[in-house]
Amino acid sequence: MQVNNTTENITENTSFKPLIVAFCCNWCSYAGADLAGTNRLTYPADVKIIRVPCSCRVNPMFILRAFQRGADGVILCGCHPGDCHYTTGNYYARRRMTLLFSMLDYFGIEKERTRVEWVSAAEGAKFAATMNDFAETVTRLGRNKRLEDLRCRK
Amino acid sequence: MTYKLFLDKLYDFFDKIAGKEILYIPSDDSDGSARFKKYETGVTLSESGNTVRSAKDFFFPQTESLVDFKVDGQKIEVIDPRTETEDFVIFGVRSCDARSFKILDKVFIDQEPADSYYLNRRSHGTVITLACTAPVETCFCKTFGIDPTESADGDITAWKTSNALMLKAVSEKGRALLESLGEIIDKADSEDEKAVEAQKKQTNVIYDKLPLHNLSTEKFDGRSMMDTFFSEKWKELSEACLGCGTCTFVCPTCQCYDIKEFDTGHGIKRFRCWDSCMYSDFTKMAGGQPRLTQLERFRQRFMHKLIYFPMNNDGEYGCVGCGRCLAKCPIHMNIVKVMKSIGEDE
Amino acid sequence: MQEVMIKKAAELLENGTVNRVMGWKAGEFIYDVTPAVFETAEELKDFVYGDFCAPNLSKYMVAESKKDGKILVFLKPCDTYSFNELLCEHRINRDGVYVVGIPCDGKTDIEKIKALAGPGIIDIKREGDNLKVQTAYGSSELSRDDVKLDRCLVCKSHKHVAYDELIGEDGEIRESKRFDEVERLEHMTPEERFSFWRGELSKCIRCNACRNVCPACTCEKCVFDNPASGVENKAASTSFEENMFHIIRAFHVAGRCTDCGECSRVCPQHIPLHLLNRKFIKDINELYGEYQAGADPESRSPVVDFTKNDAEPGIIYERGGNE
């Protein structure tokens, strides 16, 4: 049973390109993404960046709605702990996302579909590497089926 | 004519119907409560009382797509999302719930224009009612003139005795279904009729032992609408109401709905869903909310069921006494308490 | 106990300490008590207290405490946690309430009684640890322990954390096995957990009883009722919407939920909603230190707090459920 599922996934995945939503804080990670661009580093075009003023601006509803509207993976990037432009925002985001991700896991939703990474404005290379790695993980998981809204599927 | 089917052939009977149409029967859930389930081999008929939720979902589902829109530049495409409805049979509807279909018919069919979504489901459905043998303390169907032991509101009425299922056609549709069953059913004899009569009598004896057996609608004859509306009692009655929609959603006769739209990102889906008069945004419109407090919303529910509805529908009350709201209200405020309390008013 | 409470209420109404009393009122049957406000000693004849007085009266204090005069409210130990939490959130005007703590040895669940004794309940009498149940179809004797509310079987505390006066002796915080079931779910595979929650949440009829009864849900306007929020919905159209409502609701009360268990008690569809809230409580306890919402009105909820060495979100890849 389990084996069958895996093979099915692999065959499906050969043509599967995941849609990834990346929430990036304005001060560090968004600038990091910019740097990745100017340095001509490649990361998948299916990563859609949404700029937020701070990682703690992202409430759980944002993550769920991204999945509803077709995301296969959602990643939140913010300043490294201690470096928040607003001093402490990312500390709150860290607790919230830990609890939310744990709840999604409790619901049986694949936990690798969600991630938090701290990316500074100087870390263009880390940004690209993170996105490549995340895209690979999500590609392996396949299409988001457990937290999708069928009405939104094209 | 009454037919009989020996109980050892009950599942053959189900198989036979399910071979032709979709069949739903009440079946026990893992938590021991009965719910309507699609019949297939292995699904067993519930032996417990009435289903937790009423059967109104079959005709008036909680959410239902009305129309889809696809927008492409200047072009708007309007799509009817309906697919062909298959014929279906609901077995084991109790008299109270069967009456609720008649009440819903008054709202959705008996007025112009008829609701085509409801009408479509209604015309594809066949209802087999099953006589009640185990009324419980929350039952008060007789208050509204419903006979728990025999229903004339379905297509076929049935009694389950110790060894057989008795079936009697009520409508043309029911007769056609019975006749199509062939040899699996037999003609009932006078012994069988006697067993049914004995069962009816026994059910009535139990009903009369229950606390709500003599609940009366006397005060709600429509003559004192304004007095009832302005009664001092509403404040006290509605005080503990949480404003949740439990009573309205388990109710077999509640028929209010809202029409909403959902933006899918590549189109619009217009759908309707049940609404509850207990909710703060019920009937909210551009000009605001006509009922600002829970007292007014609470009052609306009971005025509708006991006064407005009968006034507009030849005295038919908007309640069938199934008792679901009595069992399910988180704070145990309900129509019986309202009727008794308001009934004491001068 | 009922007589003592009526006497206390009459006395406080008489001497002007309070002008209203909140308690429970007898219903049509033995079990259908309704929370009610009594304004005179005369009205107290309908006051009841017994095995079926499960409703948590704390939330009613949000509105009642702001009315003229002072209201007397009887709170069971678990209710006092909710009361404290509401005080903490400045939702209750403390000066408008006079709290009398009452002891509780667990409330009974009428659904469990019906399941065991059969339908048609006419009368229920308590005799020590047993209940004599009379139905329209016969009679039986049940052990009270078998028909207690699930939440009472894992009662966390017999101690009152907020009161002006106590009736009887105060109890102790108890060792409770309330996280066992969460753990059982955590040990399942993600597939099993997914089908467990789908099975449960697909029963949801969005009556909002869980939200409206919840003492932690006191928003003036819920996001799910607000057409401007973009997520308003009156009914779940897809499994996603079923999941979203319950995830967001549990998240919004995380760190503030005292685990009073009202959500599961009122659910007409018997969905074990407390297992969502308990998951958050368990995670908070394990990741950020033991925390009981409502225990101490001066404490800060862990979801609006942080330390510099908090675990990274990546920790969930190692902990939590099976792969």
Q: Would you count the extended β strands of chain B for me?
A: 12
The number of helical runs of chain B is 11
Largest sheet of chain A: 4 strands, parallel
* Count of extended strands of chain A: 4
Based on CA atoms alone, the radius of gyration of chain B comes out at 22 Å
What is the helix/strand order of chain B?
Answer: EHEEEEEHHEEEHEHHHHEEHHH
Question: What is the oligomer described by this structure?
Answer: heterotrimer
Specify the structural class of chain A: alpha/beta
Q: How would you summarize the topology of this molecule?
A:
The complex is a heterotrimer of chains A (154), B (346) and C (323).
Chain A (H helix, E strand, L loop, with lengths): L1 H12 L6 E6 L3 H10 L8 E6 L7 H9 L4 E6 L10 H18 L7 E5 L5 H18 L13
Parallel strand pairs in A: 1-2, 1-3, 3-4
Helix pairs in contact in A: 2-5
Chain B lengths: L1 E5 L3 H11 L1 E7 L5 E5 L24 E10 L2 E5 L8 E6 L1 H14 L7 H9 E6 L25 E5 L3 E6 L2 H8 L6 E2 L2 H20 L15 H5 L3 H6 L7 H5 L6 E7 L4 E7 L19 H19 L11 H5 L6 H9 L3
Parallel strand pairs in B: 2-6, 6-7, 7-8
Antiparallel strand pairs in B: 1-9, 1-10, 2-3, 4-5, 4-12, 8-9, 11-12
Chain C lengths: L1 H13 L5 E6 L8 E5 L8 E2 L11 H5 L6 E5 L1 H12 L8 E5 L8 H8 L3 E7 L2 E6 L2 E6 L6 H4 L11 E2 L13 H7 L3 H12 L7 H5 L25 H15 L8 H5 L7 H15 L26 H4 L5
Parallel strand pairs in C: 1-4, 4-5, 5-9
Antiparallel strand pairs in C: 1-2, 1-3, 6-7, 7-8
